């Protein structure tokens, strides 16, 4: 009888069902998932034989898990998805769009870059109802709408992006076993965290794994540290002014945050590999220190995506867990701020399949399938929290929707020349020996040089 | 699969298209000015004058579109912003930018170290391999890195310099060696100035083979009499090499040296793939890439590109002159 039902479903779904058996979770079987949204979507979209090219920054594990998600789109519509993931996506997409051979959909890891391309008319505005949909269905919807609303080439604002796959960055990963063995307790204030760091050093251990290496993006993990500390020593308004360059980068309040980071990273005894090693070690390799025996480090500050890079068979809750990067006891007025980031889907070539794919991303199922795997968080309130693959991921998802303050990763919002270049270099130089003042001043000089020549919207004239 | 098919079709169309162009245009010319009949002599003279241009036309067209036009396009980008002329602003910014000065200094280091070392090693290798029995094998081993792409070589050497925190098994050859001698492992590529040399060694490793092959051919071309005469006069092997052989191949040495110099001036891949210009290893070409495609500022990128072009130009002209003199 069930076979017959499946057969009927197969006939309704059309040619794409050749894949249906290979789908990660067979449609209709597991009630954690919103199958209804999937079936409705499948019924309304038949794109048999068409294809959509998606380019994004996802490689390795993320690419595999994303594939498991868009296979449902393929099965539902009969269309083919061609995904190309690249470590150098940010450079590649600039070249591809300005040379007139873009993919259909681009997955931007930095909304600043999407804003830039939207201003040049290289992105297609999303349907008018996107803003309302985000407000209604995403927690803290207004902040998401603001995040993806850009000025088009004519100066009019539209929603150009669709945030999907969010990272929470205010997390400190640790091994519960190692903490228990040494009698350490989860710190609830920054003062306690610093005391713990010192205590681990006194016990002959190393507190932190910090890896700043990231191929051609080396240095970015340091910006997360500084931003997270920035939200903990300064009001969110100061953070916004810093992002918008309304205060200089070497403002004493910013330098103070960098110095807080230095307290952790520039003390050889606190960091695996020493301060010199921290700059080189790849952030994707650094988690191994938490799991080695004996542990090479006890804690690691990183965003939620890092779960993709834990050793296989790592069990969340037992082998590794996380705690919220605590606020300062001396700054009670700042509450419990959360730093985050995320990828934004945008249409770089307007085709019916591309539009349909973005509609697909609105279905709870498109979120739940990834929630059930690893490295994915969503602010979509209609997605079933039970779909999260493990309680830890679910815990992060709850942090995401329950924060006092949520701010998007500053370096992603700054102009590319700062957030994706000078800030990284400045932090690498800071860790390698420069003072916070010197590093911040170097970044500030680059930023003012941009402003002087109007460099914040610099790409015009590129095609001439 | 699709891409392979596409590439195959492109190649077929390209080759057939080229043949068709030359064949058809040639035939058309002969039709218009037939080398027969009453006007044969005049027609022959006219078509003889047109024919070279006909054959050169595609090359001139593509060089114009892909080489000459971009040069002027870059020049304009370098002195403009958003389509408006802004004069030398980009260059003034450049001179004041500490990263640019760092890049310039590093390029200078590359310029001095790499061609010199590659040519010297190539020269010595050429001389030594010519006089031993298994020289052919040695030569092909030295030459082999030439076949590896820059990025491939960068990845290989990144593993050689790889660093793991102390106490872990060092997967990097250099650190494995250093720790086996009882020293602490270091993150080699983060140590300023030294790291630039670590990067330069990769380029030397790749280019020494190229130098060796050319110099070896030149060494063989030296008349034996000069060497015999020197030996009869009591010159030591050292003297024969430096005083008799090397002076006779100065021309080739110069060509090899300048060819590597030009390649070094444009050095990009190795730095991009290994350090991306961090820890004080920035070079001009990588900085140009950063500003053009990371910062999205094509004007500043173009300004840096102009600097590279100006630096390459005299050496290139000299190199071409030298090469054509060599041929005569």
Largest protein interface, residues of each chain: A-B, 47 and 45 residues
What is the alpha-carbon Rg of chain A in Å?
Answer: 23 Å
Main sheet attributes: strand count, strand direction, barrel closure of chain B: 2 strands, antiparallel
The CATH architecture of the largest domain in chain B comes to Orthogonal Bundle
Major sheet of chain A, described briefly?
6 strands, mixed
Provide the structure class of chain B: mainly alpha
Helix tally of chain A equals 20
CATH superfamily of the largest domain in chain B: MetI-like
- Indicate the percent of residues in helices of chain A: 40-55%
User: Count of DSSP E strands of chain A?
Assistant: 11
Radius of gyration of chain B: 26 Å
* Helix share bin of chain B: over 70%
Q: Going by CATH, what is the homologous superfamily of the largest domain in chain A? A: Periplasmic binding protein-like II
Read across the widest sheet of chain B, the strand sequence of neighbours is: 1-2
* Order of helical and strand elements of chain B: HHEEHHHHHHHHHHHH
- Strand fraction band of chain B? under 5%
Contiguous low-pLDDT stretches of chain A (5 residues minimum) are 1-19, 454-464
> How many β strands of chain B by DSSP?
2
Secondary-structure map with pairings?
The complex is a heterodimer of chains A (464) and B (328).
Chain A: H1 2-13, H2 35-44, E1 51-56, H3 60-77, E2 80-85, H4 89-98, E3 105-108, H5 111-119, H6 130-137, H7 141-148, E4 149-151, E5 157-159, E6 162-168, E7 171-174, H8 176-182, H9 190-202, H10 220-233, H11 236-243, H12 252-265, H13 274-280, H14 288-291, E8 299-301, E9 321-324, E10 337-347, H15 352-360, H16 364-371, H17 391-402, E11 405-408, H18 410-413, H19 416-432, H20 436-452
Parallel strand pairs in A: 1-2, 1-3, 10-11
Antiparallel strand pairs in A: 3-10, 4-5, 6-10, 7-8, 7-9
Helix pairs in contact in A: 2-3, 3-16, 6-7, 10-12, 19-20
Chain B: H1 2-32, H2 40-78, E1 80-81, E2 84-85, H3 89-96, H4 98-130, H5 135-143, H6 150-160, H7 173-180, H8 194-220, H9 224-232, H10 237-248, H11 250-265, H12 269-274, H13 284-294, H14 298-327
Antiparallel strand pairs in B: 1-2
Helix pairs in contact in B: 1-2, 2-14, 4-5, 4-8, 4-11, 5-8, 6-8, 8-11, 9-10, 11-14, 13-14
